[in-house]
Protein backbone atom coordinates (compact mmCIF):
# COMPACT_ATOMS: atom_id res chain seq x y z
CA UNK A 1 0.00 0.00 0.00
CA UNK A 2 1.34 3.41 -0.90
CA UNK A 3 2.36 5.81 1.84
CA UNK A 4 2.20 9.59 1.69
CA UNK A 5 0.56 11.55 -1.07
CA UNK A 6 1.62 10.60 -4.57
CA UNK A 7 0.74 8.57 -7.62
CA UNK A 8 -0.61 5.03 -7.15
CA UNK A 9 -0.17 2.08 -9.45
CA UNK A 10 -2.96 3.31 -11.71
CA UNK A 11 -1.48 6.77 -12.03
CA UNK A 12 -3.94 8.51 -9.71
CA UNK A 13 -3.22 10.70 -6.75
CA UNK A 14 -3.47 8.77 -3.51
CA UNK A 15 -4.25 9.95 -0.02
CA UNK A 16 -1.99 9.48 2.93
CA UNK A 17 -3.35 6.47 4.76
CA UNK A 18 -0.29 4.85 6.25
CA UNK A 19 -0.90 6.94 9.36
CA UNK A 20 -3.56 4.33 10.04
CA UNK A 21 -2.22 1.45 12.09
CA UNK A 22 -2.28 -2.02 10.52
CA UNK A 23 -4.78 -3.04 13.20
CA UNK A 24 -7.31 -0.40 12.11
CA UNK A 25 -6.61 -0.03 8.39
CA UNK A 26 -9.35 -2.49 7.44
CA UNK A 27 -11.88 -0.26 9.23
CA UNK A 28 -10.64 2.78 7.32
CA UNK A 29 -10.90 0.96 4.00
CA UNK A 30 -14.32 -0.47 4.79
CA UNK A 31 -15.56 2.95 5.91
CA UNK A 32 -14.62 4.55 2.59
CA UNK A 33 -16.28 1.68 0.74
CA UNK A 34 -19.54 1.91 2.69
CA UNK A 35 -19.73 5.71 2.39
CA UNK A 36 -19.08 5.60 -1.37
CA UNK A 37 -21.52 2.76 -1.96
CA UNK A 38 -24.39 4.33 -0.02
CA UNK A 39 -23.81 7.78 -1.48
CA UNK A 40 -24.01 6.50 -5.04
CA UNK A 41 -26.93 4.06 -4.67
CA UNK A 42 -29.05 6.04 -2.24
CA UNK A 43 -28.51 9.19 -4.26
CA UNK A 44 -30.12 7.51 -7.27
CA UNK A 45 -32.83 5.68 -5.34
CA UNK A 46 -33.83 8.82 -3.44
CA UNK A 47 -35.16 10.11 -6.75
CA UNK A 48 -37.60 7.20 -6.73
CA UNK A 49 -38.45 7.23 -3.03
CA UNK A 50 -39.42 10.91 -3.12
CA UNK A 51 -41.09 10.72 -6.54
CA UNK A 52 -38.76 13.23 -8.15
CA UNK A 53 -38.66 11.28 -11.41
CA UNK A 54 -41.49 9.57 -13.34
CA UNK A 55 -42.38 5.93 -12.73
CA UNK A 56 -40.84 5.01 -16.09
CA UNK A 57 -37.42 5.69 -14.56
CA UNK A 58 -37.89 3.07 -11.83
CA UNK A 59 -36.19 0.10 -13.46
CA UNK A 60 -33.26 2.03 -14.98
CA UNK A 61 -32.49 3.78 -11.69
CA UNK A 62 -32.81 0.58 -9.66
CA UNK A 63 -30.39 -1.17 -12.00
CA UNK A 64 -27.95 1.75 -12.05
CA UNK A 65 -28.07 1.96 -8.26
CA UNK A 66 -27.27 -1.73 -8.12
CA UNK A 67 -23.73 -0.90 -9.26
CA UNK A 68 -23.16 1.00 -6.02
CA UNK A 69 -20.97 -1.68 -4.40
CA UNK A 70 -18.79 -1.80 -7.52
CA UNK A 71 -18.53 1.98 -7.53
CA UNK A 72 -17.65 1.87 -3.83
CA UNK A 73 -14.88 -0.63 -4.55
CA UNK A 74 -13.47 1.45 -7.41
CA UNK A 75 -13.51 4.66 -5.37
CA UNK A 76 -11.78 3.00 -2.42
CA UNK A 77 -9.16 1.34 -4.60
CA UNK A 78 -8.40 4.67 -6.23
CA UNK A 79 -8.21 6.59 -2.96
CA UNK A 80 -5.90 4.00 -1.41
CA UNK A 81 -3.65 3.83 -4.46
CA UNK A 82 -4.30 0.18 -5.25
CA UNK A 83 -4.44 -1.19 -8.78
CA UNK A 84 -7.96 -1.75 -10.09
CA UNK A 85 -6.61 -3.94 -12.87
CA UNK A 86 -4.66 -6.19 -10.50
CA UNK A 87 -7.61 -6.43 -8.12
CA UNK A 88 -9.98 -7.51 -10.90
CA UNK A 89 -7.54 -9.98 -12.41
CA UNK A 90 -6.86 -11.60 -9.03
CA UNK A 91 -10.56 -11.86 -8.24
CA UNK A 92 -11.74 -13.34 -11.51
CA UNK A 93 -9.98 -16.69 -11.41
CA UNK A 94 -11.93 -19.08 -13.62
CA UNK A 95 -9.89 -22.30 -13.67
CA UNK A 96 -11.94 -24.07 -11.05
CA UNK A 97 -13.61 -27.42 -10.72
CA UNK A 98 -16.94 -27.48 -12.56
CA UNK A 99 -18.61 -28.61 -9.35
CA UNK A 100 -18.23 -25.10 -7.92
CA UNK A 101 -19.94 -23.55 -10.92
CA UNK A 102 -22.71 -26.12 -10.74
CA UNK A 103 -23.17 -25.62 -7.01
CA UNK A 104 -23.39 -21.85 -7.37
CA UNK A 105 -26.14 -22.10 -9.99
CA UNK A 106 -28.13 -24.99 -8.55
CA UNK A 107 -28.03 -24.37 -4.79
CA UNK A 108 -30.36 -21.31 -4.73
CA UNK A 109 -33.19 -23.14 -6.58
CA UNK A 110 -32.71 -26.15 -4.29
CA UNK A 111 -33.06 -23.94 -1.22
CA UNK A 112 -36.12 -22.22 -2.69
CA UNK A 113 -37.85 -25.51 -3.49
CA UNK A 114 -36.92 -27.05 -0.13
CA UNK A 115 -38.20 -24.03 1.80
CA UNK A 116 -41.44 -23.99 -0.21
CA UNK A 117 -42.10 -27.63 0.65
CA UNK A 118 -41.51 -26.88 4.33
CA UNK A 119 -43.77 -23.83 4.08
CA UNK A 120 -46.62 -25.80 2.51
CA UNK A 121 -46.26 -28.58 5.09
CA UNK A 122 -45.98 -26.41 8.21
CA UNK A 123 -48.50 -23.72 7.32
CA UNK A 124 -50.97 -26.01 5.54
CA UNK A 125 -50.67 -23.95 2.36
CA UNK A 126 -51.36 -25.15 -1.17
CA UNK A 127 -49.01 -25.79 -4.04
CA UNK A 128 -49.39 -23.49 -7.01
CA UNK A 129 -47.63 -25.38 -9.79
CA UNK A 130 -49.51 -23.45 -12.47
CA UNK A 131 -47.88 -20.22 -11.25
CA UNK A 132 -44.29 -21.44 -11.51
CA UNK A 133 -41.95 -19.84 -14.00
CA UNK A 134 -41.15 -21.86 -17.12
CA UNK A 135 -37.85 -23.71 -16.83
CA UNK A 136 -36.41 -21.92 -19.87
CA UNK A 137 -36.75 -18.63 -18.01
CA UNK A 138 -34.17 -19.62 -15.40
CA UNK A 139 -31.05 -19.45 -17.62
CA UNK A 140 -32.34 -16.21 -19.13
CA UNK A 141 -32.92 -14.73 -15.70
CA UNK A 142 -29.53 -15.97 -14.56
CA UNK A 143 -27.80 -14.21 -17.44
CA UNK A 144 -29.67 -10.96 -16.82
CA UNK A 145 -29.10 -10.88 -13.08
CA UNK A 146 -25.46 -11.83 -13.52
CA UNK A 147 -24.96 -8.70 -15.62
CA UNK A 148 -27.22 -6.08 -14.10
CA UNK A 149 -29.81 -7.52 -11.74
CA UNK A 150 -27.96 -8.34 -8.55
CA UNK A 151 -24.99 -10.54 -9.29
CA UNK A 152 -22.96 -7.47 -10.26
CA UNK A 153 -23.18 -6.33 -6.62
CA UNK A 154 -20.66 -9.02 -5.73
CA UNK A 155 -17.86 -6.97 -7.29
CA UNK A 156 -18.20 -4.84 -4.18
CA UNK A 157 -19.59 -7.01 -1.40
CA UNK A 158 -17.48 -10.14 -1.72
CA UNK A 159 -14.93 -8.93 -4.25
CA UNK A 160 -13.74 -5.98 -2.19
CA UNK A 161 -15.42 -5.50 1.19
CA UNK A 162 -14.97 -9.13 2.26
CA UNK A 163 -11.20 -9.37 1.65
CA UNK A 164 -10.73 -5.82 3.00
CA UNK A 165 -12.34 -6.71 6.33
CA UNK A 166 -10.63 -10.10 6.39
CA UNK A 167 -7.31 -8.29 6.72
CA UNK A 168 -8.13 -7.84 10.39
CA UNK A 169 -11.31 -9.78 11.14
CA UNK A 170 -12.47 -13.37 10.95
CA UNK A 171 -14.41 -14.42 7.89
CA UNK A 172 -17.58 -14.84 9.94
CA UNK A 173 -17.38 -11.43 11.61
CA UNK A 174 -16.70 -9.82 8.23
CA UNK A 175 -19.72 -11.67 6.80
CA UNK A 176 -22.04 -10.35 9.48
CA UNK A 177 -20.84 -6.78 9.05
CA UNK A 178 -21.19 -6.91 5.28
CA UNK A 179 -24.55 -8.65 5.58
CA UNK A 180 -25.78 -5.84 7.82
CA UNK A 181 -24.59 -3.12 5.42
CA UNK A 182 -25.99 -5.12 2.52
CA UNK A 183 -29.42 -5.13 4.15
CA UNK A 184 -29.26 -1.43 5.06
CA UNK A 185 -28.22 -0.63 1.49
CA UNK A 186 -31.47 -2.24 0.25
CA UNK A 187 -33.80 -0.35 2.62
CA UNK A 188 -34.83 2.45 0.20
CA UNK A 189 -36.03 -0.17 -2.29
CA UNK A 190 -38.67 -1.38 0.18
CA UNK A 191 -40.39 1.94 -0.46
CA UNK A 192 -40.15 1.86 -4.25
CA UNK A 193 -43.14 0.23 -6.00
CA UNK A 194 -41.97 -2.20 -8.63
CA UNK A 195 -38.70 -3.11 -6.94
CA UNK A 196 -37.88 -6.69 -5.93
CA UNK A 197 -38.05 -5.65 -2.27
CA UNK A 198 -41.47 -3.94 -2.47
CA UNK A 199 -43.94 -5.93 -0.39
CA UNK A 200 -41.30 -8.26 1.07
CA UNK A 201 -41.36 -8.46 4.91
CA UNK A 202 -38.30 -6.58 6.13
CA UNK A 203 -37.26 -8.67 9.15
CA UNK A 204 -37.20 -12.07 7.38
CA UNK A 205 -35.43 -10.36 4.49
CA UNK A 206 -32.74 -9.10 6.86
CA UNK A 207 -32.26 -12.61 8.27
CA UNK A 208 -32.04 -14.03 4.77
CA UNK A 209 -29.45 -11.45 3.70
CA UNK A 210 -27.27 -12.07 6.76
CA UNK A 211 -27.43 -15.84 6.23
CA UNK A 212 -26.75 -15.50 2.51
CA UNK A 213 -23.70 -13.35 3.28
CA UNK A 214 -22.22 -16.27 5.22
CA UNK A 215 -22.90 -18.72 2.38
CA UNK A 216 -21.34 -16.33 -0.15
CA UNK A 217 -18.29 -15.87 2.06
CA UNK A 218 -17.82 -19.61 2.14
CA UNK A 219 -18.01 -19.83 -1.64
CA UNK A 220 -15.58 -16.94 -2.03
CA UNK A 221 -12.98 -18.13 0.46
CA UNK A 222 -13.28 -21.77 -0.57
CA UNK A 223 -12.53 -21.02 -4.22
CA UNK A 224 -10.59 -17.78 -4.08
CA UNK A 225 -12.67 -16.63 -7.03
CA UNK A 226 -15.37 -13.97 -7.17
CA UNK A 227 -17.08 -15.75 -10.07
CA UNK A 228 -18.63 -18.39 -7.80
CA UNK A 229 -20.43 -16.09 -5.32
CA UNK A 230 -21.29 -13.85 -8.28
CA UNK A 231 -23.06 -16.78 -9.97
CA UNK A 232 -24.78 -17.77 -6.72
CA UNK A 233 -26.11 -14.25 -6.22
CA UNK A 234 -27.26 -14.12 -9.84
CA UNK A 235 -29.14 -17.38 -9.35
CA UNK A 236 -31.12 -16.17 -6.33
CA UNK A 237 -33.57 -13.86 -8.12
CA UNK A 238 -34.74 -16.21 -10.91
CA UNK A 239 -34.84 -19.07 -8.39
CA UNK A 240 -37.67 -17.26 -6.58
CA UNK A 241 -39.94 -18.07 -9.51
CA UNK A 242 -39.89 -21.72 -8.40
CA UNK A 243 -41.31 -21.28 -4.90
CA UNK A 244 -43.85 -24.08 -5.13
CA UNK A 245 -46.58 -22.20 -3.28
CA UNK A 246 -46.36 -19.28 -5.68
CA UNK A 247 -44.23 -16.14 -5.74
CA UNK A 248 -46.87 -14.20 -3.80
CA UNK A 249 -46.45 -16.61 -0.89
CA UNK A 250 -42.75 -15.85 -0.87
CA UNK A 251 -43.65 -12.23 -0.10
CA UNK A 252 -45.43 -13.16 3.13
CA UNK A 253 -43.73 -13.32 6.52
CA UNK A 254 -44.21 -17.12 6.85
CA UNK A 255 -43.12 -17.72 3.26
CA UNK A 256 -39.99 -15.56 3.20
CA UNK A 257 -39.33 -16.44 6.82
CA UNK A 258 -39.21 -20.14 5.95
CA UNK A 259 -36.75 -19.47 3.12
CA UNK A 260 -34.59 -17.30 5.39
CA UNK A 261 -34.60 -20.02 8.05
CA UNK A 262 -33.45 -22.67 5.56
CA UNK A 263 -30.58 -20.46 4.38
CA UNK A 264 -29.70 -19.71 8.01
CA UNK A 265 -29.48 -23.45 8.74
CA UNK A 266 -27.07 -23.85 5.83
CA UNK A 267 -25.03 -20.90 7.13
CA UNK A 268 -24.83 -22.39 10.63
CA UNK A 269 -23.81 -25.77 9.21
CA UNK A 270 -20.99 -24.12 7.26
CA UNK A 271 -19.87 -22.23 10.36
CA UNK A 272 -19.80 -25.40 12.43
CA UNK A 273 -18.00 -27.34 9.70
CA UNK A 274 -15.29 -24.80 8.86
CA UNK A 275 -15.11 -22.49 11.87
CA UNK A 276 -15.41 -18.70 12.00
CA UNK A 277 -11.81 -17.78 11.21
CA UNK A 278 -11.65 -18.71 7.52
CA UNK A 279 -15.14 -20.18 6.96
CA UNK A 280 -13.58 -22.48 4.37
CA UNK A 281 -11.08 -25.30 4.04
CA UNK A 282 -8.42 -22.83 2.91
CA UNK A 283 -7.12 -19.54 4.29
CA UNK A 284 -9.51 -16.60 3.94
CA UNK A 285 -8.88 -14.17 1.11
CA UNK A 286 -7.29 -10.87 2.14
CA UNK A 287 -7.18 -7.69 0.11
CA UNK A 288 -3.39 -7.78 0.22
CA UNK A 289 -3.57 -11.14 -1.59
CA UNK A 290 -5.43 -9.48 -4.47
CA UNK A 291 -3.51 -6.26 -4.88
TrEMBL record:
- A single GO molecular function, which one? metallopeptidase activity
| Keywords recorded for this protein, A-Z | Hydrolase, Membrane, Metalloprotease, Protease, Transmembrane, Transmembrane helix
Which segments constitute the CAAX prenyl protease 2/Lysostaphin resistance protein A-like domain? 138-237
**InterPro entries noted in UniProt:** MmRce1-like (IPR042150), Rce1/LyrA-like_dom (IPR003675)
Give the domain of life: Archaea
Query: Which ranges does the record mark as transmembrane?
Result: 27-49, 61-80, 100-120, 132-149, 169-191, 203-220, 256-274
Choose any GO biological process term that the UniProt entry carries and state it: CAAX-box protein maturation
Q: What is this protein called?
A: CPBP family intramembrane metalloprotease
Amino acid sequence: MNSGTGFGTDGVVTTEIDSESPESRHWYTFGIFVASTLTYSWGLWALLVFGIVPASATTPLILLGGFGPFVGALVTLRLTGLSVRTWLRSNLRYRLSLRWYALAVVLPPILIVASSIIYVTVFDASYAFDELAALWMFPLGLALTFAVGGGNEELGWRGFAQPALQEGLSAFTASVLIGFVWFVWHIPLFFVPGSSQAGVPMVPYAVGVLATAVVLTWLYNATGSLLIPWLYHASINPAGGYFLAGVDSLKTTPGYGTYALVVAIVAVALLVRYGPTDLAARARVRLSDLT
